[in-house]
């Protein structure tokens, strides 16, 4: 880590700096459409004819496995993007979400969610191969909804920690992501300055899974939308979630699957296409 990152991390830790990729609502809305598109059928994506497909996307590549991943270029955003779909059966996914932490990194204090990490491993090689073919000066948006947000976060982390892509050229957006790691993982992620917006919406249940009491802590940079037009930039840092944001309605009120599948008044999930 360079000296600038060390200084930045120090001021962040004591609360003087918030690690936000300055929220631009128009950009968030555009990226959300790309995220929702990953739920559409492969044929719709190949023709780029889905309801949420913009008119400015080219060079489309698709990975179609247990999840679906789109890799393409969006001219309006002037960026390549990787969009990762969440579970096609959200109720079943929530019911069967395991809670085991594993320690697969060189720093054995860094723990991550077992199931989500190994799901990411199924696609890691293909995703990194795609990124390696980009120009080092290109911009790259990495986005995902639900469990796709978890995979997107792992990818952004690996690209930066392995020196594959500049952190300044990566912009990570997650929508309704679950918690994916312990406090050591969150601190390590933050130290690399990856521009990141973690979007939560109303009383969406998924951002409250797995529970904090099991050792899971969210990545910071939460933007909590209380409606399609009202939002709060949250002060979550140093491994502590902001209890005045979406965490304020946990554990008894944040139980909505409907809010998980409708972000900013737009369907996102298996019913989006």
Defining key terms:
273 residues; alpha/beta; Rossmann fold; eight-stranded mixed sheet; two-stranded antiparallel ribbon; 12 strands; globular; disordered N terminus
Give a written overview of the molecule.
There is one protein chain. The chain has 273 residues and is an alpha/beta fold. The protein has a single domain (3-267), classed as Rossmann fold, CATH 3.40.50.1820. It has helices spanning 3-13, 25-37, 42-47, 90-95, 114-132, 147-161, 183-191, 257-260, and strands spanning 57-64, 68-74, 79-84, 101-102, 112-113, 140-145, 170-175, 196-201, 222-225, 231-233, 262-263, 266-267. The strands form three sheets. The protein has an eight-stranded mixed β-sheet, with helices on both faces. Strand 7, helix 7 (183-191) and strand 8 form a beta-alpha-beta unit. The chain is globular. Mean pLDDT is 88; it is low at 1-21.
Quick structural overview:
By secondary structure, the chain is an alpha/beta fold. The chain has eight helices and twelve strands. The protein has an eight-stranded mixed sheet, sandwiched between helices. It has a two-stranded antiparallel sheet with strand order 4-5. A two-stranded antiparallel sheet has the order 11-12.
């Amino acid at each position: 880590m360079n000296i600038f990152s060390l200084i930045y991390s120090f001021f962040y830790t004591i609360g003087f700096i918030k690690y936000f990729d300055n929220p631009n609502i128009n950009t968030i809305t555009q990226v959300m459409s790309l995220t929702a598109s990953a739920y559409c059928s492969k044929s719709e994506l190949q023709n780029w004819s889905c309801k949420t497909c913009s008119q400015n996307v080219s060079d489309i590549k698709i990975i179609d496995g247990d999840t679906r991943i789109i890799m393409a270029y969006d001219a309006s955003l002037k960026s390549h993007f990787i969009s990762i779909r969440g579970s096609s059966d959200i109720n079943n996914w929530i019911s069967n979400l395991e809670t085991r932490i594993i320690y697969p990194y060189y720093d054995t204090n860094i723990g991550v969610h077992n199931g989500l990490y190994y799901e990411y491993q199924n696609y890691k090689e293909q995703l990194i191969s795609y990124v390696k073919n980009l120009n080092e000066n290109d911009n790259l948006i990495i986005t995902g909804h639900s469990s796709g947000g978890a995979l997107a976060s792992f990818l952004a982390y690996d690209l930066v920690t392995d020196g594959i892509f500049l952190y300044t050229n990566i912009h990570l957006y997650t929508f309704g992501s679950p918690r994916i790691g312990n406090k050591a993982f969150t601190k390590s992620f933050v130290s690399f300055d990856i521009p990141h917006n973690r979007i939560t919406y109303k009383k969406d249940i998924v951002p409250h899974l797995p529970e904090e009491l099991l050792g899971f802590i969210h990545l910071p940079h939460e933007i909590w939308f209380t409606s399609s037009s009202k939002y709060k930039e949250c002060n979550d840092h140093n491994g502590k979630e902001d209890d005045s944001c979406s965490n304020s309605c946990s554990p008894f009120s944040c139980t909505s699957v409907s809010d998980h599948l409708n972000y900013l008044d737009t369907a996102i999930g298996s019913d989006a296409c």
